Amino acid sequence: MAKGDPKKPKGKMSAYAFFVQTCREGHKKKNPEVLVNFAEFSKKCSERWKTMSGKEKSKFDETAKADTVRYDWEMKDYGPAKGGKKKKDPNAPKRPPSGFFLFCSEFRPKIKSTNPGISIGDVAKKPGEMWNNLNDKTFITKLKEKYEKDVADYKTKGKFDGAKGLAKVARKKWKRKMKKTRRKRTRKRMNKETVYLSKKKNIYIYNLKGWINK
Fold first, then answer.
1. Do β-strands 195-199 and 210-213 pair in parallel, antiparallel, or remain unpaired?
2. Which position among 33, 140, 147, 174 has the lowest Cβ density within 10 Å, counted as fewest Cβ atoms?
3. SMART domains given for it (predicted)?
């Protein structure tokens, strides 16, 4: 979580970061009592990563992709803290999602509900593994059609809400105008009731009650 904003989603991790995390977890299981020398451990991980084949790295690449999807998904629902970066216009055209993105968005909530207590790393790994083992991907077309329909409905609702928003702004402007008018009328009435005079460097005020030395 970001410092100062506990609600901000956890940042996305790279393939190498997931590899290091896996190595650290494996080391803890094998040697729970042994303290890790961070510099030495990092060096060994780096050397091991360089010698790994593309096939060995692929599972970490898939996990990183899934975690990116997770991060993007959570950031959509995240509203930055006061004074933070301004949110994008929700009515702006969205980039069409990939089949993998749709797959993750469909199955990620199910994975979390059927596996209570599952770690963020495992939630990110699972969709990638399921996607790689998936032979029939025709249902992705149906998911995409559903997504496009939802987007169309959302845009229609957004336009309607936008109209309501404009009406709300108009009401606020009218209220501000009326408040300003009332203030002007009050000042005008006070000016009629009170006369300011300067005499021999002394300020005298005349109101309905008579002369008052200020």
1. unpaired
2. 33
3. HMG
Q: Where are the domains of the chain?
A: 1-79+93-137
Q: Which CATH superfamily is domain 1-79+93-137 in?
A: High mobility group box domain (1.10.30.10)
pLDDT digits (tens, 9 = 90+) for 98-133: 666 766 777 777 777 777 777 777 777 777 777 777
Whole-number Å distance between alpha carbons of 67 and 121: 8
Q: Which of 65, 49, 74, 71 is nearest to 129 (CA)?
A: 65
Instruction: State pLDDT tens for residues 63-102.
Output: 888 888 888 888 877 765 555 565 565 655 455 556 667 6
**Token pair for 83:** 């004074």
pTM as predicted: 0.39
Burial class (CB in 10 A: 0-12, 13-18, 19+), 128: buried
